């Protein structure tokens, strides 16, 4: 479960998004642990349909962080991301000779948590271990 600390982390939850959780995880995995600006560029260039709702959710979390907590958008990183399965919408479609065919539309719930890197000392320790440069 995602832990929430109001001093450091900001989260947003998108519920009942009409796509399967497997397809959303395909888009979520490359952006886990990246900076906010880098995440937006990755989501704009990916060719999947799942990118647009995730892009809107990341943008919403950053707006919440800057407005409610006063964080700078350039200092935010994606600390945690969860994709859970939601309810399945079941419909019936008419077929030939009076038969019906069931249609199942899966949904998913996406939770994104952003963290301010200057309030998180573990991020700087991770940068030193990996040898990456902080921009």
UniProtKB/TrEMBL annotation:
This is Large ribosomal subunit protein uL22c. The keyword Plastid applies. InterPro entries: Ribosomal_uL22, Ribosomal_uL22_bac/chlpt-type, Ribosomal_uL22_bac/org-type, Ribosomal_uL22_sf. Belongs to the universal ribosomal protein uL22 family. GO terms for molecular function: rRNA binding; structural constituent of ribosome. SUPFAM superfamilies: Ribosomal protein L22. One of its GO terms (cellular component) is large ribosomal subunit. It is found in: Plastid. One of its GO terms (biological process) is translation. It holds the Pfam family Ribosomal_L22. Keywords: Plastid, Ribonucleoprotein, Ribosomal protein, RNA-binding, rRNA-binding. Its main location: plastid.
């Amino acid at each position: 479960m995602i832990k929430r600390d109001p001093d450091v982390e900001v989260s947003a939850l998108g519920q009942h998004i009409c796509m399967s959780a497997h397809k959303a995880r395909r888009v979520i995995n490359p952006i886990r642990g990246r900076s906010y600006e880098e995440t937006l560029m990755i989501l704009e260039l990916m060719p999947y349909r799942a990118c647009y709702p995730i892009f809107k959710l990341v943008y919403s979390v950053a707006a919440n962080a800057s407005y409610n907590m006063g964080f700078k958008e350039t200092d935010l990183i994606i600390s945690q991301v969860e994709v859970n399965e939601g309810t399945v919408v079941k419909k019936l479609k008419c077929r030939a000779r009076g038969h019906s065919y069931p249609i199942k539309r899966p949904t998913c719930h996406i939770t994104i948590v952003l963290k301010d890197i200057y309030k998180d000392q573990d991020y700087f320790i991770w940068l030193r271990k990996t040898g990456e440069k902080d921009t």
